[in-house]
Structures are given as C-alpha cells and as structure tokens.
Design goal:
2 domains, two-stranded antiparallel ribbon
Length: 171
C-alpha cells in the first residue's frame, strides 16, 4: 500500500525561504529531465506508433507533438504532452459523426491515393459522407506509445536527474 508523508516546517523564515527555493529548483530540474526524456523516448515512440497505424499522411500530426513544463505557485511541476493539430484527439480516440474539414480530407485523399480530378472529388465526397454518418475509428498513438516506453522513459528521467545533480550513475 502506498503511503505519503508531509512535513510542516515553521520558525526561521530564512530557512523556510531557502527550502522553498530549493524545492522550486528541484521541481524545475525534475521537470526539465521529464521533458528531455520525453523528447528522447515518448515522442519518437508516438511517431513510430503513428507509422504503424498508417496514420502519417502529411506529417503535421507527428511534427506537432510537444512536451512542455511549467511550475505553478504551489511548487508543482506540470508537464504537458500535446499534439497541436486540431484533429489529434480524433486520431487517438476516434470521433462521432461530424462535419470534417474539406481541405484536410482533400489533402488526405490526394496523398493516400494519388487521385486527382473527378476521381479525387468522388473519394473526398465519399470520405466526408462516411465521417458525417459514422464518424471515424480510433487509431491510438499516444497511449500505446506511453505504455510501451514507460520503463525506458522512467529510467531516462532518473538518469537525467542524477546527472543534473552531479551523480553519474551506471543506469
């Protein structure tokens, strides 16, 4: 069973201020290590998953993957893993019936099939009709990539924190 412990320090304001500063610095160090490890492990794993799913058409989704971190006022580190294209969630989770963006579908049809002219127009209309009526199936890339690379990611974070603290390790 997991347990947690909290310690409240009262008294000397200089000591408390120093501890808070170190807590903030350590949080930033961990956050930077998480982002670096994520860029080295998670994002490549997601790009590979997109390839395996056959989901790379223009490369915009794969190139939109980002990891960022920030600290909040309570000394927490928040790491965001995002795909900035508007259709990323639909690729990951699928989507209910909706009106798709015609230009995106045109690009998809052109790149996937090589069709042009009337043939391309018919395919675009058929894809749009299917999405309007049935939605789109999921092609998960984030969660499978995180699951398959979480152990290496954790090792990499620990190694980076150790290095930043000046403790070289054999991990």
């Amino acid at each position: 069973m997991a347990s947690s412990m909290s310690i409240k320090i009262t008294g000397n304001k200089k000591v408390i201020s120093t501890l808070r500063r170190y807590n903030n610095l350590f949080g930033k160090l961990v956050g930077m290590s998480v982002v670096e490890a994520g860029r080295e492990v998670l994002i490549p794993a997601m790009k590979e998953q997109l390839k395996e799913n056959g989901s790379i058409v223009t490369g915009k989704l794969a190139n939109s993957l980002m990891l960022t971190f920030k600290s909040d006022m309570r000394s927490r580190v928040i790491v965001d893993l995002v795909a900035t294209v508007p259709y990323a969630a639909s690729v990951e989770q699928g989507a209910p019936p909706h009106e798709p963006d015609r230009s995106t579908i045109k690009d998809w049809v052109r790149i996937k099939t090589g069709a042009t002219g009337q043939g391309a127009k018919k395919l675009v209309n058929a894809v749009i009709k299917t999405i309007r009526e049935k939605g789109s199936d999921p092609h998960p890339f984030m969660m499978p990539a995180i699951q398959s690379s979480k152990d290496e990611f954790a090792r990499r974070v620990v190694r980076k924190v150790d290095i930043k603290l000046g403790r070289e390790t054999g991990r």
